[in-house]
């Protein structure tokens, strides 16, 4: 038996809700898989689709994008704008063959530490089942081997 | 009098009266079944204009040429319904003042060019409404659905193969009326979001970003598709985006000169079934 | 060259028990650009902070990463330490290896690996941090209150009593608002006029308050601390400076049969009038559309009557430009037009009235001097039916929300009626009795138990006239059977809705509104008084239906917010704001549309001869809150957000 695959997951989160929710999971000493790396932004409105592509390039097998629930955004509307972008970008990625299961979106409030911990566990397990995103990472390897500059 | 003669004579009249300083239309192309853009500045030159079923290019792109409209003078332009929608978007995005345009509208039916009534952008509202009512291209939709029915991995391979052909010539960007940015995201190198070399990862990123930037703005004129020297089905990916904004946000690009950009607005009850 | 100092905190055992800090330090020390990397038990402690400060000075550090707890915990602490050591406080990042690492993982090697990666990515970010400086915005320490109802009056008084100037703008000829129309107030049955008029007088006489009645806000420019407001002072045709308010002109005016707006049409007024006897200021206005002089150039009896020549038919509207630092919007509400309930016969039957009509009937200063008389024939009604939720909580015809005050005022009406008509009979059709508030439930109980208010749970389906009676047909849901009441008068508890021009006004002033037209607060729970536009605050029923206590509380809260703002001459703001690259901005204005704070505007770039070169987007640092929504919209990457720049995030992600 080979070792179980440990996926790499990058999370882009807003500082006011999901980051705070993750902090709450910590202060409550909840336990969850260690596969996630957080990138803290002021608001989901700041999360550009490019971030997701870069995370995939750097070897992420899954990406989580998360912010405040609708109506709770610290910046009033940032998450509504983000939601539209996600809808469109998600459809685009799916259409180009990047599996929807690898790019996930959630609303996690500052009070939802348990939801954060559960989601990271579920997400890690889901992506572990999908296996590494070699298809995308191969593209990066092509650069590294072909590069002559 | 056929539409070609009628439009030529009207264009010549506009130029001789000084009502417009330039007419952007079509003329003979490199082969008998192709037409190329022509820029007519004198009544005499108007004879070069042609209008028939082969006039497919969306000429609105040429209106964005630096400084063309900044003197406030009027320009006439030949436009199909897709080009008219482009004008609506460009006006909504403050890239031109539609009051400066005289529009020779036409449509192609059964290989023939037919005139559209009106000369001002506001005259064409019913045309755009009819275009919306007619729906997105069933042909492209069929193609998109075919792709959606295969597995993600197979779809990825399909696009990987398509994008691997890309040589980053940016012909798609040059021909597109929506690609008017002074500096394209691909030319940003601090930081270098998009890999500029024409390896597949960079190509993948470039084409995804371009499709995203066209979501809710592409009018399916097909310019990118036709100009692509390696035949990447760019129209397909843009069609998928048009379908998404229509289904999710009831948004049809280029409906009016004051339509707000789909990604700069929102409704509190926008769909969000995918968000956990 | 970057010289980064990395400080790995043990947080006692909190971090060190799960993260191999020695390994972390060893790995990080090798990272390019790291000048010094040390570990310590508690970096947040005094000696810990001293270590950081000493390292900054001794190694001339250009950036600092503290690998410790959440930035939400100690970012400010270490920013301060950096500043004290001479390093710009924004050249700091916190790597969260406690809340999001050591506390949540169980395998030491995994946690250590994660801590290393987190720290590395933030080292790469901090290398690209820029020195930022708090934005200082001068504050004009004068407030404007728009709307002179009880909310506006309270806000104005609170601000003025704290020593700041206030301009109170009211579009009607008198301040007072809806509260001045009310007879008695729940739950104490105080006379509304008795508690309100002293406040009105205090307001107009206050040395710090300038009251502008019969005036409307036309334009608002600027941002927090620096608003420029244009106010139209409508021509009164009566000189404010000289009029003594003797009322002779009103007495003599020959046009007397104009339905009074204040009396809801139950009484009349003349063409020159004050809305009510206790109006403040007590200076009449001429209703130009009704005045005979303005109609045909004749009459002018008021001018002849006036002993001090205060009538001025040539007066014109004037526009005043006023500089203020903050604005309270207290523009109030109106009652919903009930004509959409054809089955209730409002407008068709004179004796079907709204709650506000009833207030006027019950008011000692009203058209009937406080006697309950039905409008059709002036008889005392023997049976009165009250219908609650006539418009509220009605998805199909009215509004979805609860108007909040109707349960209480209906109970009050039933009480007042029984006090005035001792053998009268009341029936109140209701859906629920919502009486949450201090003394409220006791009040409705009193209406039932002491004043025998006849509550019937159910809806009314139809009202029609028969033999001089209004036949009210409904259902008693609790008994499960139809009810029919022969009433002399029916009072509809109509919904509270926004002012008819609320949405237009919101656009003028630059604040948001909901689907109904109520103004949006910045955050329903945590910032209920602020709007999304910094410096503009809400008070009263313009935000949502409210009773008097709630309106007054919110007004005082708004005043407190403003006094906080006015406590300093300059406003210091976090420098995490967006900036536009002029050279690459394509001027599509998507960012202008997307910005939740209206903080982005157009700016012309001209050459030295003043010729326009191009128009670009421009962020107002006074308004920008730093969400970054514009940044990710911009297709050409022409906007960036200080503190979270594209370069910083790129580096952070690429180091993961």
Q: Which descriptors would you attach to this protein?
A:
heterotrimer, B: 276 residues, alpha/beta, five-stranded mixed sheet, 5 strands, 11% strand, C: 656 residues, five-stranded parallel sheet, 34 strands, 28% helix
Q: How would you describe this protein?
A:
The complex is a heterotrimer of chains A (149), B (276) and C (656). With 149 residues, chain A is an alpha/beta fold. Helix content of chain A is 46%, strand content 15%. Chain A contains five helices and four strands, in the order βαβαβαβαα. Chain A has a four-stranded parallel β-sheet with strand order 2-1-3-4, sandwiched between helices. The relative contact order of chain A is 0.23. Helix content of chain B is 37%, strand content 11%. Chain B contains nine helices and five strands. Chain B has a five-stranded mixed β-sheet. The radius of gyration of chain B is 20 Å and the shape is globular. Chain C has 656 residues and is an alpha/beta fold. Chain C has a five-stranded parallel β-sheet. The longest helix of chain C has 20 residues, at 108-127. Chains in contact: A-B, A-C, B-C. At the A-C interface, helix 1, strand 2, helix 2 and helix 3 of A face helix 3, helix 4, helix 5, helix 17 and helix 18 of C.
Our Rg estimate of chain C from Cα atoms comes to 32 Å
Q: In angstroms, what is the radius of gyration of chain A?
A: 16 Å
Which range best describes the helical content of chain A: under 10%, 10-25%, 25-40%, 40-55%, 55-70% or over 70%?
A: 40-55%
Shape of chain C, please? Answer: elongated
Largest interface: A-C, 43 and 49 residues
Give the low-confidence spans of chain A. Answer: none
Biggest β-sheet strands, sense, barrel of chain A: 4 strands, parallel
- Major sheet: arrangement of strands of chain C: 10-7-6-18-29
Order of SSEs of chain A: EHEHEHEHH
Give the class of chain C from helix and strand content and strand pairing. Answer: alpha/beta
Beta content of chain A comes to 15-25%
Average pLDDT of chain C: 93
Query: What form of chain A results from the Cα inertia axes?
Result: globular
- Based on DSSP secondary structure assignment, what is the total number of beta strands of chain A? 4
What is the oligomer described by this structure?
A: heterotrimer
């Amino acid at each position: 038996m080979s070792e179980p695959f440990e996926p790499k997951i990058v999370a882009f989160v807003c500082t006011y809700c999901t980051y705070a929710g993750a902090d709450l999971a910590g202060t409550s000493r909840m336990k969850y898989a260690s596969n996630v790396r957080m990138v803290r932004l002021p608001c989901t409105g700041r999360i550009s689709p490019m971030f997701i592509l870069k995370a995939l390039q750097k070897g992420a097998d899954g990406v989580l994008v998360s912010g405040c629930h609708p109506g709770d955004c610290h910046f009033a509307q940032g998450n509504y704008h983000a939601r539209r972008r996600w809808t469109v970008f998600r459809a685009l990625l799916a259409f180009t063959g990047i599996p929807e299961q690898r790019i996930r979106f959630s609303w996690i409030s500052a009070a939802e530490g348990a939801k954060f911990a559960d989601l990271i566990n579920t997400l890690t397990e889901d992506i572990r089942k999908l296996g590494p995103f070699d298809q995308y990472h191969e593209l990066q390897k092509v650069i590294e081997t072909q590069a002559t500059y | 009098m056929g539409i070609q003669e009628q439009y030529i004579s009207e264009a010549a009249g506009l130029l001789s009266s000084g009502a417009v300083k330039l007419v952007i239309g079509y003329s003979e192309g490199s082969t008998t079944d192709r037409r190329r853009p022509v820029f007519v500045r004198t009544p005499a030159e108007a004879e070069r204009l042609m209008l028939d079923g082969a006039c497919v290019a969306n000429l609105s792109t040429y209106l964005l040429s630096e400084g063309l409209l900044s003197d406030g003078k009027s320009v006439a332009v030949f436009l199909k319904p897709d080009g008219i929608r482009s004008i609506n978007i460009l006006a909504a995005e403050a890239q031109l003042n539609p009051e400066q345009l005289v529009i020779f509208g036409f449509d192609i039916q059964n290989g023939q060019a037919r005139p559209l009534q009106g000369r001002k952008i506001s005259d064409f509202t019913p045309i755009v409404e009819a275009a919306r009512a007619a729906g997105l291209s069933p042909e492209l939709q069929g193609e998109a659905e075919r792709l959606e029915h295969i597995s993600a991995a197979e779809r990825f391979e399909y696009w990987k193969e398509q994008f691997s052909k890309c040589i980053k010539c940016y012909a798609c960007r040059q021909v597109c009326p929506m690609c008017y940015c002074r500096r394209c995201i691909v030319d940003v190198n601090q930081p270098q979001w998009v890999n500029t070399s024409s390896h597949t990862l960079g190509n993948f990123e470039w084409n995804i970003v371009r499709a995203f930037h066209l979501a809710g703005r592409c009018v399916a004129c097909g310019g990118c598709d036709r100009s692509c020297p390696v035949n990447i089905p760019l129209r397909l990916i843009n069609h998928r985006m048009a379908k998404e904004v229509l289904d999710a946000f009831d948004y049809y690009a280029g409906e009016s000169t004051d339509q707000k950009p789909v990604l700069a607005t929102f409704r509190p009850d926008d769909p969000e079934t995918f968000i956990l | 060259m970057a010289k980064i100092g990395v400080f790995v905190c043990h947080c006692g055992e909190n971090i060190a028990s799960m993260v191999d800090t020695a390994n972390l330090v060893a790995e990080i020390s090798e990272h390019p650009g790291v000048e010094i990397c040390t570990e310590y038990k508690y970096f947040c402690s005094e000696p810990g902070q001293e270590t950081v400060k000493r390292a900054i000075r001794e190694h001339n550090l250009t950036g600092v990463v503290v690998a410790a707890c959440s930035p939400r915990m100690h970012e400010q602490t270490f920013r301060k330490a950096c500043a004290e050591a001479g390093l710009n406080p924004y050249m700091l990042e916190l790597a969260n290896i406690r809340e999001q690492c050591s506390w949540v993982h169980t395998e030491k090697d995994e946690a250590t690996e994660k801590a290393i990666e987190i720290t590395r990515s933030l080292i790469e970010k901090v290398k690209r941090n820029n020195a930022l400086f708090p934005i200082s915005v001068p504050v004009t320490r004068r407030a404007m209150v728009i709307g002179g109802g009880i909310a506006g009056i309270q806000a104005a008084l609170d601000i003025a009593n704290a020593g700041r100037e206030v301009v109170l703008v009211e579009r009607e000829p008198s301040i007072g608002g809806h509260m001045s129309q009310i007879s008695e107030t729940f739950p104490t049955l105080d006379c509304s006029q008795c508690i309100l008029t002293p406040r009105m007088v205090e307001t107009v006489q206050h040395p710090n308050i300038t009251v502008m009645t019969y005036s409307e806000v036309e334009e608002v420019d600027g941002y927090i601390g620096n608003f420029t407001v244009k106010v139209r002072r409508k021509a009164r045709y009566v000189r404010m400076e000289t009029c003594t308010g003797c009322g002779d002109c009103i007495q003599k005016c020959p046009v007397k049969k104009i339905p009074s707006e204040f009396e809801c049409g139950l009484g009349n007024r003349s063409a020159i009038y004050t809305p009510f006897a206790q109006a403040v200021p007590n200076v009449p206005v001429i209703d130009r559309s009704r005045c005979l002089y303005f109609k045909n150039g004749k009459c002018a009896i008021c001018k002849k009557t006036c002993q001090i020549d205060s009538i001025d038919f040539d007066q014109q509207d004037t526009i005043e430009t006023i500089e203020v630092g903050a604005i309270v919007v207290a523009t109030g509400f109106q009652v919903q037009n009930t004509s959409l309930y054809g089955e209730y016969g409002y407008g068709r039957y004179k004796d079907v009235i709204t709650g506000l009509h009833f207030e006027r009937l019950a008011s000692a200063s009203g058209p009937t001097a406080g006697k309950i008389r039905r409008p059709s024939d002036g008889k005392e009604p023997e049976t009165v039916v009250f219908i609650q939720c006539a418009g509220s909580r009605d998805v199909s015809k009215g509004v979805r929300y609860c108007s909040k005050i109707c349960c209480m005022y209906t109970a009050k009406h039933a009480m007042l009626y029984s006090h005035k008509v001792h053998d009268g009979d009341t029936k109140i059709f209701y859906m629920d009795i919502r009486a949450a508030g201090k003394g409220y439930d006791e009040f409705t109980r009193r209406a039932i138990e002491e004043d025998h208010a006849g509550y019937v749970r159910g809806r009314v389906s139809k009202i029609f006239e028969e033999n001089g009676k209004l036949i009210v047909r409904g259902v008693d849901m609790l008994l499960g059977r139809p009810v029919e009441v022969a009433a002399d008068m029916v009072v509809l508890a109509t919904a509270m809705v926004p002012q008819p021009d609320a949405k237009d006004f919101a656009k003028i002033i630059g604040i948001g509104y909901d689907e109904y037209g109520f103004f949006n607060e910045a955050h329903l729970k945590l910032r209920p008084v602020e709007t999304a536009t910094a410096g503009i605050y809400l008070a009263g029923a313009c935000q949502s239906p409210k009773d008097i206590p709630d309106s007054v509380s919110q007004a005082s809260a708004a005043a407190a917010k403003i006094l906080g703002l006015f406590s300093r001459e300059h406003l210091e703001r976090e420098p995490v704001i967006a900036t536009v690259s002029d050279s690459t901005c394509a001027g599509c204005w998507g960012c202008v549309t997307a910005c939740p704070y209206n903080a982005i505007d157009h700016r012309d770039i001209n050459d030295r001869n003043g010729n326009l070169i191009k128009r670009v987007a421009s962020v107002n640092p006074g308004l920008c809150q730093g969400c970054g929504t514009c940044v990710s919209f911009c297709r050409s990457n022409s906007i960036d957000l200080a503190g979270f720049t594209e370069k910083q995030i790129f580096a952070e992600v690429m180091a993961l």
